[in-house]
Amino acid sequence: MSQSSLSEQTKQFGDEIGGIIRTPLPQEIGATAVKIDDRIVKFYLPKAENCILGTQALIADAMAEPDNYAYPLLTGLFAARKNKLDLNSPICQALLNTKAIFGDKRFDLALAKKMLKIGDDNAAC
Predict the structure, then answer these.
(1) Does this model's pTM top 0.85?
(2) Cα–Cα distance for residue pair 29/36, rounded to 1 Å
């Protein structure tokens, strides 16, 4: 996962339309540091935690911002498998229906079916 406020589509990190926080006046440094810290905790740390722990929320993160992941489909499939989600679960279906993630349909679907198999022929993530 990589993150930069400059490439954010939502520009939620910054104060201005471009998603930036301007260099503050000397008397505003403390308040600006607190603002930056709050936004890192709110916007970035949960995504990093989801990535490290492989939570189910990681699937939604990868679908929402696929460009932040080198392999968003594999990221989603990993999280689905780790959380023992069924291939037909709503979140797995949403992942497979996200055009920005699901490229070569035959290859990706075969990969998903293979990755989501556990033990016998039951499809589970």
Answers:
(1) no
(2) 10
pLDDT in tens, 67-76: 889 999 999 9
44 within 8 A of 58, measured Cβ to Cβ: no
CA–CA distance, 123 with 103 (Å, rounded to integer): 21
Q: Note the helical H segments in the chain.
A: 29-39, 45-53, 57-64, 72-82, 90-96, 105-115
Please name the residue that has the structure tokens 């989501």. 116
CB 84 within 8 A of CB 59: no
Closest CA to 55 of 72, 78, 39, 74: 78
For residue range 5-31, what is the model confidence (pLDDT) as tens digits? 656 666 677 777 666 777 888 999 999
Instruction: Give 3-state DSSP helix, strand, coil % of the chain, rounded to 5.
Output: 55, 5, 40
Considering just the CA atoms, what is the radius of gyration of the chain in Å? 18
Closest Cα partner for 58 from 28, 25, 32, 82?
82
